[in-house]
# Entry
Amino acid sequence: MTALENFYTPTQIVAELDKYIIGQHDAKRNVAIALRNRWRRMYAQEDMRKEIMPNNILLIGPTGVGKTEIARRLAKLADAPFTKVEASKFTEVGYVGRDVESMVRDLVEQSVNMIKAKKKEEVKVKAEQAVEDIILDLLIPPVKNTGMGFKNSASATEPAVMPDSDQELNERTRELFREKIRSGELDERKVEINVQQQGPGVGVVGGPMDEASMMNIQEMIGNMMPKKTKKRKLSIAEARKILLDEESSKLIDMDDVKDEAIRKAENMGIIFIDEIDKVASSKKGGGPDVSREGVQRDLLPIVEGSAVNTKYGIIHTDHILFIAAGAFHISKPSDLIPELQGRFPIRVELNSLTQSDFYHILKEPKNALTKQYQALLSSENVTIDFNDDALLSLSEIAFELNVEVENIGARRLHTVMSHLLNELLFDVPDRIGANAHIVITRELVEQKLKGLVKNRDLSQFIL
# Structure
């Protein structure tokens, strides 16, 4: 169990989530337990490992309270493949049942990209050496020894004064240029390289075929066709990036990448199904509710556990963690079909944001809006500070707008802050120059924003 100790504990997971999300402790605790259980399962006895199923979570709460953010930060923390999908899109005209499987394909694609990036990092040093040699050959082509000349008869103790052959002179020049390439002195110099071109999309004509089979056939035909290259004149800095990607791809085994990506997606993947309440039937009978129930029945086998065909191979969804979320204003979780309800045994209600929450959201998270605006203006050498009273006033106005107009949660802060700082952002750097220090006070906040709350008609147009 020693390897398990290297992973985050539930307390540490909650502490990491606290850096970005204010409140919602129940939701954080439940996702922390779910994440730790995934690691626990990987180190459980082998005969029990397949039997331990993930406890999928249903997050219930209004928009803008942190449902998506919790899931996204959790996936980043676990270095897990993550994909988000809106359940309501499967009710649109033109979608059919098999399209629900696209969420699993997206997850595998994400997993492949993660593993590919990791493998490329492992071979980066070797790839950089290969790129260096390619660029050097373009600048100073090597001179091959013809075997016709005579070797220098001077002993090893005698200092080499002059190169006695074109080959030796060429080698010395190459080494000199190699140092210049490494130091970046030649980054702006232009070189001509062959760049692989993406071939045109291959159309497949035939009978009805699912998306995965179509992708497999297109990829197979694409691999059979010769790769086209195009000569491009680029700076050495630009050429290095393109060549590094090509050389790294040559050094990694894509079969290993695919196998590892499938394993990672199966055991660590997280699929976030948003707007699940939009496919819940709020009334019995015909009409649009029939298609909604159809979407639920299409979702069910994937959540229960099934084999989905992807272009990288077959993936089993039994141990993927599904986190569903919805506001459930009109419908209730009990309006979902019983089989789907049973697949989301952990239900967590997220609280609406209070005025105090808005204040803490503006002040505490690592990515707080106030810190984002400070970072934006620092690029113009302008500093901006927010008084505590100003933050209290901003949180009060955002809360009032949510109560009186529409509750859109923390997203209201984006609008309020934008309204407050738009004029200032426009004036930098023309009227407000570098090294300026701006302080946002309560008086300034009230002057700019108080009218929005008083004028109900105007407030209706503010998101």
